[in-house]
Amino acid sequence: MDNMVDVRNLKKYFPVKGGFIQHTLGYVQAVDDISFTIQKGKVLGLVGESGCGKSTAGRTILGLTPATEGQVLIDGVDVCTATGDAMHTLRKKMQIIFQDPYSSLDPRMTVYDLIGEGLAAHKLVSSRIELEEKVEAIMEKCGLFPEQALRFPHQFSGGQRQRISIARALAASPEFVVCDEAVSALDVSIQAQIINLLKDMQEDMGLTYLFISHDLSIVRFISDDVAVMYLGQIVEMGSKKQIFDAPAHPYTQALLSAAPAFTRKEKREKKRILLEGDLPTPYNPPAGCRFAGRCPYAGAECRESVRVEEVEKGHKVMCLKAGKLS
Asked: What whole-number distance in Å separates Cα of residue 162 and Cα of residue 171?
């Protein structure tokens, strides 16, 4: 199967300035040398604690934030170097669903204008009547009623606003969608509706998703593969089964142990792993493994170097002790 997304050694550093002339003192390494691929029609879940660089990675992949180094190939075209017509064509292929639907929707625009804007910009309709028909069709697919088209975002609930965001993102029939914490601000019952909607739209339109979330249960439900980020780097990546059933990196093990248990059996069997030490700063990260200061298995060699090990086919871990942990 062909790759829809191919991220190669992607970096995003933000300069830290100071002094009278505001010269650069250093860089915050928000995303530091990450690489992965997503096959067409598949879902990659990107997980990690707050501040690890998940959202920055998603925005950099789409070109909303310019990359410092690396390549992002969307269907073979590099987002990092594309300009003009090439970027305009790419914009139709890739879209994003933001975390907060209220702040991402222009409060002065009606639902009709919000959804129809992309169709008009990419010249996907030839008349006003066709535009109205397409807007109504995508609204109905996303669980909205055509009579709501002339309302404004503040007249909807949080779940309805997220449906508007999804309709806007999917109106131009993209191939790749970044879901940046798309359900984290919603109630649990509404989360289930939105997740089911995203799954249905994926099947109907053959979409490829990068699903960014800190909710492991949702990632487990929707994803085919999972990548775990820690302080700007991907420390473990593999299939959903490999990550959730046999995590190999100490950070992934600790992250999964923190997920809530819902049954008595899970509560009895789950062993909480408590991490000690402070989270390093991305402004001046350690030279070796960035998790070494909090890892119960770290040795002197971990603080000096790091490398990616493949514990089994398709299951990669950034850990010198991968496969040797008790």
From this structure: 14
Report d(CA 239, CA 232) in Å as an integer.
Answer: 21
Q: What CATH number should be reported for the domain holding residue 195?
A: 3.40.50.300
Q: Residue 161: which of 172, 151, 173 has the closest Cα?
A: 151
Helices assigned H by DSSP within 94-187: 101-104, 111-121, 128-141, 158-170
Residue 76 domain-assigned? yes
- CA dist., res. 326 & res. 315, Å (int): 18
The answer to whether residue 255 is domain-embedded is: no
Q: 87: domain range?
A: 3-245
Quote the CA–CA distance of 248 and 325 in Å, as a whole number.
8
Looking at the DSSP assignment, which residues form a beta bridge with residue 315? 312
Tokens read off for 280: 């390093």
Distance of CA 196 to the CA centre of its chain: 18
* Edge-first strand listing for the sheet containing 77-78: 23-39, 3-18, 69-74, 77-78
234 lies in some domain: yes
Higher pLDDT, 262 or 123: 123
pLDDT, tens digit (0-9, with 9 covering 90-100), for 152-189: 999 998 889 999 999 999 998 899 999 998 888 777 88
Number of domains observed in the structure of the chain: 1
**E-only strand ranges, the chain:** 3-18, 23-39, 43-47, 69-74, 77-78, 94-97, 176-180, 208-212, 225-230, 233-239, 308-312, 315-318
Vertex 199: Cα angle to 188 and 263 (nearest 5) = 40
Whether 285 maps to a domain, the answer reads no
What does the alpha-carbon distance between residue 291 and residue 112 come to, in Å, rounded to a whole number?
48
pLDDT score recorded for residue 67: 94
In the chain the first and final C-alpha atoms are separated, in Å, by 36
CB contact at 8 A, 34 and 234: yes
